[in-house]
C-alpha cells in the first residue's frame, strides 16, 4: 500500500520546501498539465528537473498532456521513477510503454473515468502501473467519483487473471473518507492531493491514509 501525494495543491512557489513536508510518502505525484489535454496548465520538464535535487523521494509523473509519445520518455530521462501517460492521448501506447521502460522508469497508463479497462486487458503485462482516475483530470480538490469503483474491481480481476505484478493506482478525491473504498476495490497505490496538503500536518496525513488502506487489506 503506497501513498503518493500530489503536489498540485501545494504552494507551487515553494515546491522544494513543500516536498520536504511529505517525507513518509512513497513517491511524489507530479501533475503535468498542458492546457490542451486538460483545461489547466501546471508545470513541466524544467520544473521537474529543478525539483529533482530537493528530495530523495521517487517522482511519479502524471502526464495530462497531448502527444505523450513525444514527451513521456523525457520525463524518465529527467529522473522520474514512474511515468504515466493517458491512453486517450497516446498514439501508440504499447510502443510508448516500452520506450519509458527502456529509459529505466516504470511505465504507467492512465484511464479517464469514462474510459473502459477491457480494451487494454492484453496490455497489462506491458505496464508497471495502471492509473484509474476517480475524477475527470484537470483540477485538484474535486469530489471522488464512486462510479469508478466497479472499474477498479474489474482491473484488479484482470490483473489476477493474467498474474501480472502491475500496480493499481487511483487518483482524484482520495481522502480518509474514500480511501477504504478504493482499497477494498483492489487499488494499492493512492494519490492524495488536497487531503494531504490541506492537512495541518501533511506527513501525519500520509501515515493516516496508509494505515486506513492497510487496515482494509489486513
Ligand atoms: O491528476 C490530478 C487531477 O487531474 C490530481 O493528481 C488529483 O486531482 C489530486 O488532487 P485531489 O486529491 O485533490 O483530487
Ligand atoms: Fe494526478
UniProtKB/TrEMBL annotation:
<feature type="binding site">
    <location>
        <begin position="171"/>
        <end position="173"/>
    </location>
    <ligand>
        <name>substrate</name>
    </ligand>
</feature>
<feature type="binding site">
    <location>
        <position position="6"/>
    </location>
    <ligand>
        <name>substrate</name>
    </ligand>
</feature>
<feature type="binding site">
    <location>
        <begin position="138"/>
        <end position="141"/>
    </location>
    <ligand>
        <name>substrate</name>
    </ligand>
</feature>
<feature type="binding site">
    <location>
        <position position="31"/>
    </location>
    <ligand>
        <name>a divalent metal cation</name>
    </ligand>
</feature>
<feature type="binding site">
    <location>
        <position position="29"/>
    </location>
    <ligand>
        <name>a divalent metal cation</name>
    </ligand>
</feature>
<feature type="binding site">
    <location>
        <position position="62"/>
    </location>
    <ligand>
        <name>a divalent metal cation</name>
    </ligand>
</feature>
<dbReference type="Pfam" id="PF00834">
    <property type="entry name" value="Ribul_P_3_epim"/>
</dbReference>
<keyword id="KW-0479">Metal-binding</keyword>
<comment type="pathway">
    <text>Carbohydrate degradation.</text>
</comment>
<feature type="binding site">
    <location>
        <position position="62"/>
    </location>
    <ligand>
        <name>substrate</name>
    </ligand>
</feature>
<keyword id="KW-0413">Isomerase</keyword>
<feature type="active site" description="Proton donor">
    <location>
        <position position="171"/>
    </location>
</feature>
<feature type="active site" description="Proton acceptor">
    <location>
        <position position="31"/>
    </location>
</feature>
<dbReference type="GO" id="GO:0004750">
    <property type="term" value="F:D-ribulose-phosphate 3-epimerase activity"/>
</dbReference>
<feature type="binding site">
    <location>
        <position position="171"/>
    </location>
    <ligand>
        <name>a divalent metal cation</name>
    </ligand>
</feature>
<feature type="binding site">
    <location>
        <begin position="193"/>
        <end position="194"/>
    </location>
    <ligand>
        <name>substrate</name>
    </ligand>
</feature>
<dbReference type="InterPro" id="IPR011060">
    <property type="entry name" value="RibuloseP-bd_barrel"/>
</dbReference>
<dbReference type="InterPro" id="IPR013785">
    <property type="entry name" value="Aldolase_TIM"/>
</dbReference>
<comment type="similarity">
    <text>Belongs to the ribulose-phosphate 3-epimerase family.</text>
</comment>
<dbReference type="InterPro" id="IPR000056">
    <property type="entry name" value="Ribul_P_3_epim-like"/>
</dbReference>
<dbReference type="InterPro" id="IPR026019">
    <property type="entry name" value="Ribul_P_3_epim"/>
</dbReference>
<keyword id="KW-0119">Carbohydrate metabolism</keyword>
<protein>
    <recommendedName>
        <fullName>Ribulose-phosphate 3-epimerase</fullName>
        <ecNumber>5.1.3.1</ecNumber>
    </recommendedName>
</protein>
<comment type="function">
    <text>Catalyzes the reversible epimerization of D-ribulose 5-phosphate to D-xylulose 5-phosphate.</text>
</comment>
Amino acid at each position: 500500500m503506497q501513498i503518493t501525494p500530489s503536489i498540485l495543491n501545494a504552494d507551487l512557489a515553494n515546491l522544494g520546501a513543500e516536498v520536504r513536508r511529505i517525507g513518509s510518502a512513497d513517491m511524489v505525484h507530479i501533475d503535468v498539465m498542458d492546457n490542451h489535454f486538460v483545461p489547466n496548465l501546471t508545470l513541466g520538464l524544467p520544473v521537474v528537473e529543478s525539483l529533482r535535487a530537493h528530495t530523495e523521494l521517487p517522482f511519479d509523473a502524471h502526464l495530462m498532456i497531448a502527444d505523450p509519445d513525444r514527451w513521456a520518455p523525457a520525463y524518465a530521462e529527467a529522473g522520474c521513477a514512474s511515468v504515466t501517460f493517458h491512453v486517450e492521448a497516446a498514439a501508440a501506447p504499447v510502443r510508448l510503454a516500452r520506450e519509458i521502460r527502456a529509459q529505466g522508469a516504470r511505465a504507467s497508463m492512465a484511464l479517464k473515468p469514462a474510459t473502459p479497462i477491457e480494451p487494454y486487458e492484453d496490455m497489462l503485462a506491458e505496464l508497471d502501473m495502471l492509473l484509474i482516475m476517480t475524477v475527470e483530470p484537470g483540477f485538484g480538490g474535486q469530489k471522488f467519483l464512486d462510479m469508478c469503483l466497479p472499474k477498479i474491481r474489474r482491473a484488479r480481476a484482470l490483473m489476477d487473471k493474467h498474474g501480472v505484478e502491475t500496480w493499481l493506482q487511483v487518483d482524484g478525491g482520495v481522502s480518509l473518507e474514500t480511501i477504504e473504498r478504493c482499497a477494498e476495490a483492489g487499488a494499492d497505490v493512492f494519490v492524495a492531493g488536497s487531503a494531504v496538503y490541506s492537512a495541518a500536518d501533511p506527513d501525519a496525513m500520509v501515515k493516516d491514509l496508509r494505515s486506513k488502506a492497510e487496515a482494509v487489506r489486513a
